Amino acid sequence: ARGHRVVLTDIDGASAAQTAREIGAAAHVEQDVRDPAAHRAVAEVAQGLGRLTAWFNNAGVGYDGNLVDLPEERVRALVEVNLLGVLWGTRAAIEAFGPEGGDVVNTASLSAHGPVPGLSVYAATKAAVVSVTTSVNAELPPQVRLHALCPDGVDTQMVEDMDDAGTAKALVHSGGRILTVDEAADAAVALVGSRRVVRTLPVWRGALSRSTALAPAA
Fold first, then answer.
1. What is the rounded distance in angstroms from the CA atom of residue 11 to the CA atom of residue 166?
2. What is the model's pTM?
3. Contact 173/133 with Cβ under 8 angstroms?
4. Distance between CA atoms of 204 and 194, rounded to whole angstroms?
5. Which stretch of DSSP H or E encloses residue 93?
6. C-alpha–C-alpha distance, residues 82 and 113, integer Å
7. Among 45, 116, 123, 207, which is most exposed with the fewest C-beta within 10 angstroms?
8. Measuring CA to CA, which residue among 118, 147, 117 is closest to residue 134?
């Protein structure tokens, strides 16, 4: 709608192709965000379509469970997809923007702002995403802008797959209705071109979540 040509990627190549058709994307790429070279390859595809102006690091996994109960491979996946994927993607975007600059939008989470029992590793990765976003934004010239979007629970398969009897799913649904995918996407797109570095959706949930840091046991 803004006139951009969109390159859509996913680790599931067939799903990437299907979604690209649905939204009218200019290209789709099968990508594992844990691989730094894969991000550079995506940047090259985008540059073949025109000047790269916006990059969204949105890939993530949401395995729930207490730290002591999570299998080692899930702990690694949370860190490698949610954090390293953002680091590699951000580096590739910054290198590809050119002198005109551009925007990097990182999908973090409301869980980045406070204690989230049942999602401790996930929350740690998202807090790191907010931290690296604010720090790298300050490292760069003004024409390159970094943003972190911190949505409350969003109506996705990731949330649906959480343990129905677990603490995490109860917390995700504790704020009333969860956000739609369109609400989260619109908020992410709205950050492009702005100077806002961190946005929490909805705002009141961010304030409430940050206040729990004063009494995390409660």
1. 27
2. 0.90
3. no
4. 21
5. helix 85-97
6. 16
7. 207
8. 147
Q: How many CA atoms lie within 13 A of 182 on its CB side?
A: 1
- Closest CA relative to residue 27, chosen from 13, 37, 35, 38: 13
pLDDT digits (tens, 9 = 90+) for 191-211: 999 999 999 997 656 555 666
What would the pLDDT profile of 166-183 be if each residue is shown by its tens digit?
887 888 887 778 999 999
pLDDT < 70: residue spans in the chain: 203-218
Short-list 135, 181, 141, CA closest to 157: 181
Q: Alpha-carbon distance 216 to 218, whole Å?
A: 5
Residues β-bridged to residue 145: 103
Look up residue 60 and give its amino acid: G
Q: What's the confidence (pLDDT) of residue 167?
A: 83
Task: Count CB neighbours of 108 within 10 A.
Answer: 29
Buried (b) or exposed (e) across 155-168, using 16+ Cβ within 10 A? Answer: eeebbeebeeebbb
Strand partners, 29: 9
| pLDDT score at 71 | 97
Q: Is 80 exposed, middle or buried (0-12, 13-18, 19+ CB in 10 A)?
A: middle
